[in-house]
Amino acid sequence: MFNKFAEKNSDYFYVVFRVVIGLVFLLHGIMKLPGMIDGSMVITGVFFWAGVIELVGGSLLILGLFTRYVAFVAAIEMLVAFFMVHTSKGVWHPLYNGGEAALLFFAAFLVLIAYGARKWSLDNLLGKG
Predict the structure, then answer these.
(1) Between the chain's N and C termini, which has fewer beta carbons within 10 Å?
(2) Whole-angstrom Cα distance, residue 90 to residue 100?
(3) Pair 112, 18: CB distance under 8 Å
(4) What whole-number distance in Å separates Cα of residue 125 and Cα of residue 64?
(5) Are 60 and 67 spatial neighbours (Cβ–Cβ below 8 Å)?
(6) d(Cα 110, Cα 9) in Å, to the nearest integer?
(7) For residue 40, what pLDDT band results from cuts at 50, 70 and 90?
(8) pLDDT for residue 43
(9) Mean pLDDT confidence for 41-53
(10) 3-state DSSP call for residue 3?
(11) From CA 115, how far away is CA 7, in angstroms rounded?
């Protein structure tokens, strides 16, 4: 019974997955760009560029535009973040080193690379879904 429900509604579940991942990624980007909203942002460093990738990438994922490409760039960013930032506190325990979000995002981006935007996306509307 549950399997039939899940299969019948898989497109709905997937769009929620894509939008939630995009929204949380976008929020991580906004967090990295303090002063973006009030205009006092200082443009410097790798942290800034990570914020830009997350803000723009999250927005594009929500819209379902260039989904596979965005997910690929974002997955690379998450690997770089994990190995450059989090492993300095220990490699084998992501909960201790704070890298669990990077690893979860990485896994989610692999799913988005594999499946693309699917229904209810600009990629699908443009025939690239």
Answers:
(1) N
(2) 12
(3) yes
(4) 9
(5) yes
(6) 21
(7) low
(8) 63
(9) 80
(10) helix
(11) 15
- End-to-end Cα, the chain, rounded Å: 29
Closest CA to 118 of 72, 65, 75: 65
* 112's tokens: 């988005």
Name the nearest CA neighbour of 106 among 73, 128, 129. Answer: 73
| Residue with token string 């492993």 | 87
Nearest to 115 by CA among 67, 80, 49, 78: 67
CA angle in degrees (0–180, nearest 5) for 23-27-30 = 140
Amino acid at 10: S
Annotated domain spans of the chain:
9-125
Residue 50 has pLDDT above 70, yes or no: yes
Residue type, 29: G
